[in-house]
Design brief:
Blueprint: H1 2-13, E1 52-57, E2 63-67, H2 79-92, E3 101-103, H3 106-112, E4 128-130, H4 131-141, H5 144-155, H6 158-171, H7 194-207, H8 209-212, E5 219-222, E6 225-228, H9 233-236, E7 240-248, E8 252-261, E9 264-273, H10 276-293, E10 294-300, E11 307-312, E12 318-322, E13 327-332, E14 340-344, E15 349-350, E16 358-366, E17 369-378, H11 387-399
Parallel strand pairs: 11-15
Antiparallel strand pairs: 1-2, 1-9, 3-4, 5-6, 7-8, 8-9, 10-13, 11-12, 12-17, 14-16, 16-17
Helix pairs in contact: 1-11, 2-5, 2-7, 3-5, 4-5, 5-6
């Protein structure tokens, strides 16, 4: 009986069954010829003064170096990055307009105005200000009054806005973050982590580039008062275009920065530093180290077939498998050829299979350390075959013991 079954399968499947394609290795075209001497080890990152610090690649989210990156700390005015993110998201959703008029309540005036010790945009009590002006005030002047006024305008109260901030934080995967207010002045339970700040910064740059452009502005004038951006790196380094400073006696001196050079963008975060100069020096050193000793490559293009899987019970015999988006990876300079790519794919694929259905995982590692992991998708649709085709494949699967 089995001999007969095999003969039937051979008639209909002969010449069709193919071995799975070998695991692809990263494209070697952009890699120079191997040097005659071994590539030197990447130097250790610079020494950083602070409670926590991190350097991350914007494109991939790879953490290149860091210390205490998941320790919960007070973020001070770096809180306002989330305040601006929420406002930008609500504008994009059509719930706010940039020309909305926002009233400056007594709460905003007293809690963040000129009579306080914190940073302020000097907004007059009961005045009406354009929403876009207040967004500039939050980002450039770090105005606490502008932050409170926007919070009340968006959500009705500071507490309700903090709830909204926490919802966006959860959506972005900021698992170590909890917001209590929109400005970052000390409050019980108000904390975040260096990793979460970098994750938020990555999302801001990616999701709202138009509003992120405000972060590179060096000054802003509102109500006739000109104030300068507190991020001193904007004057030091032309490649730096953000992000946000923060300081309270409890939080210390904090700075999240980002720079782009030759198409590669890095994000640095320093929390709990000892001075305004120290936080700037350390962020600058981290950025310089990252750009000097790492390089960016894109080994796989979006929707390119990285492998093929035999599809059973379908007229589509071979399913191409690939990535939804091009994959970029950051590696130490000179070590691109040493990357290892691994595909994790199902042993058997049976129709129907929808286009873009997840079918496995691509992992890229170096020296046994995972650098990038991405889901592999079905690049085509695999409908079910007719009755006779399904029966033939069922017979073959039975024969193979699958």
């Amino acid at each position: 009986m089995k001999q007969f079954a095999l003969a039937v399968c051979g008639v209909f499947l002969g010449g069709v069954l193919m071995a799975q394609a070998p695991v692809p290795q990263p494209d070697a075209k952009p890699v120079p010829a191997a040097p005659a001497t071994p590539v030197p080890a990447t130097p250790a990152p610079p020494s950083v003064v602070g409670s926590a610090w991190l350097l991350m690649d914007h494109a991939t989210g790879q953490v290149l170096a860091g210390e205490n990156i998941d320790v919960q700390l007070e973020p001070a005015s770096i809180t306002k990055v989330m305040t601006s993110y929420v406002v930008s998201a609500e504008i994009a959703a059509g719930k706010l307009r940039r020309d909305d008029k926002v009233r400056i309540s007594e709460n905003a005036w007293r809690g963040g105005g000129a009579g306080t010790d914190g940073s302020t945009s000097f907004l007059p009590l009961d005045s009406e200000q354009l929403l876009d002006d207040l967004l500039h005030g939050v980002i450039i002047q770090s105005g606490n009054d502008a932050s409170i006024a926007l919070a009340e305008h968006v959500a009705g109260s500071e507490a309700a806005f903090a709830d909204l901030m926490n919802q966006y934080a959860a959506r972005l995967g900021m698992h170590g973050t909890r917001y209590v207010n929109s400005h970052g002045l000390p409050a019980e339970g108000h904390h975040t982590t260096a990793r979460d700040i970098a994750t938020l910064s990555q999302a801001l740059i990616r999701d709202f580039p138009e509003d992120y452009a405000y972060y590179r502005l060096k000054e802003h004038t509102i109500n006739g008062i000109k104030q300068h951006n507190r991020n001193s790196l904007l004057w030091r380094d032309s490649s730096v275009d953000g992000i946000k400073t923060g300081h309270t006696s409890a939080a210390g001196w904090c700075l999240a920065a980002s720079a782009e050079r030759e198409g590669m963008r890095l994000i640095s975060v320093v929390m709990g530093s000892t001075s305004e100069k120290q936080r700037a020096d350390d962020n600058q050193a981290l950025l310089n180290w990252g750009f000097r000793f790492f390089e960016s490559h894109t080994p796989y293009a979006a929707r390119a077939a990285l492998s093929e899987l035999r599809v059973w019970k379908s007229p589509l015999l071979q399913m191409p498998v690939g990535l939804a988006e091009s994959l970029t990876v950051l590696v130490p300079r000179g070590r691109y050829e040493q990357l290892k790519a691994e595909l994790e794919l199902p042993k058997r694929l049976v129709a129907p299979v929808a286009r873009d259905a997840p079918l496995g995982t691509l992992r890229i590692s170096l020296d046994g350390k995972l650098l990038v992991e991405r889901p592999l998708l079905a690049l085509e649709e695999a409908p079910e075959a007719g009755f006779f085709g399904r029966q033939v494949d069922a017979l073959r699967l039975w024969w193979d013991g699958e």
